[in-house]
Amino acid sequence: MATAASQERESNSIVENPDRNCVGGPTTATNPQQSPLDISGIPESSNRRFLELRLLHNFTIQTSATFPFTHDPSTRTLWADSVPSLALSHPSLLYALLSISALHLLKVKQQDIRLRDAHPAYLRLAAQSHRQGVNYIDAENVDVACFTSVLIIINLYAGLQDREIELSYNPPMQWLRVSNGLRNMFHTLGMQPLQDNPGAAVNALIKSASSLSDPHALLKGGSLPEFSSLLRGRISHERYDGLNGTEGINEEHEDLDDPETQEAYNITVAYIGTIYLAIKAGEHEMEICRRLVAFAVLIPNKMIASIEEKRPRALVILAHYFALSGQLTKMWWIGNGPQQEVSKIQQYLPQEWQGLMRWPLQMSNIT
After folding, report:
1. If I label 161, which of 5, 209, 247, 248 is the partner at 20 to 30 A Cα–Cα?
2. 3-class secondary structure for 237-251?
3. What is the pLDDT of residues 93-123, one digit of tens each?
4. In angstroms, rounded to a whole number, what is the distance separating the alpha carbons of residues 86 and 253?
């Protein structure tokens, strides 16, 4: 029987190793209704058909209603109706849909051995098919590519709750890379596939999300005193005297001396500021969820690279993002993952950066 930790490794590894053997195999279970799903070759069987019907039904009725911005009726219909219909003729989207539905059932109520096998197996198959599909994107498959990407991104985000606690913090790079890949895909292709297909369902999502990167909102978010200290010089823990104070700042600006890195930090902190302002303004939680999912899609490639290099300032900024994500722990795909990330980052950072961790620790109720 797979543990939560081993399943998390299996799910996360699909991005780096899409051709690995699928999970499953012999078991000592005697109840045929609880036998592991042999998904390695997707053999035809009544068990498989019933399971997939169950997962499709759950996605349509339950899972789709938990996605960002689904308080909007048109977005809810998009995920509950348009996406499942599209998935029936596109394997990558179907596999992504089945995987996240299985994970949803596992998270909210049902500990079924077939679901534990199905979730990482379908996720791996989705990644394999998706990787082949994004080699060429046009007006015909742009919907499939985008919706599959979003489902995989949410799936990986949900997996943060099951990350193993390690002695040395390793950032959640699978989630960050896949999210950033969606950004890079549109940067490479431009908007031509969407312009060639004005009826593409994903157009509605993009149009409704245009405000997330509004320059005026980013300017306001980037000027918040709560986050201004993130973009100054290094701060000494012993002399740090409040989030807005300057005492303890020295002249060692390390990565802030690089213009590209500083710009990446500025943009990322500004976006985090817009999330904070939205929460303070009482914005609908499903709109907040959309802002959270869009974070890793919208931040610059240089920020992703700085996080991967485990630069202290980049990790502090990431901790501020997770502290805001942790305000929505009741969402099944968020859960306690953000608090765990904040705690791990705090434990990893050297003493001189601890002062900048006070705010995310307080927001996460970590003492």
Report:
1. 209
2. CCCCCCCCCCCCECC
3. 999 999 999 999 999 876 788 898 899 999 9
4. 50
Letter string b/e over residues 285-301, b meaning 16 or more CB atoms within 10 A of that residue's CB: ebbbbbbbbbbbbbbbe
The residues, any chain, with a CB within 8 Å of residue 294's CB and separated by 6 or more, are 209, 212
Dihedrals phi, psi of 309, to nearest 5 degrees: -75, -5
HSE, side-chain direction, 13 A CA sphere, residue 205? 24
Q: What percent of the chain has pLDDT over 90?
A: 54
Q: What average pLDDT score do residues 174-202 get?
A: 72
- Over residues 40-54, the mean pLDDT reads 80
Going by C-alpha positions, the residue among 322, 328, 303 that lies closest to residue 314 is 303
Q: Is 0.85 topped by the overall pTM?
A: no
249 DSSP β-pair partners: 235
DSSP code per residue over 22-57: PS--------GGGSPP--SS----HHHHHHHHHHHH
DSSP 165: P
CA nearest neighbour of 230 among 346, 324, 315: 315
Q: Which residues is 235 bridged to in the sheet?
A: 249
Measured distance CA(77)–CA(55) in Å, rounded? 18
**Residue with structure tokens 């502090």?**
316
Element (H, E) at 337: helix 337-348
Annotate 259-326 with DSSP letters as a single string. Answer: HHHHHHHHHHHHHHHHHHHHHHTT--HHHHHHHHHHHHHHS-HHHHHHHHTT-HHHHHHHHHHHHHHG
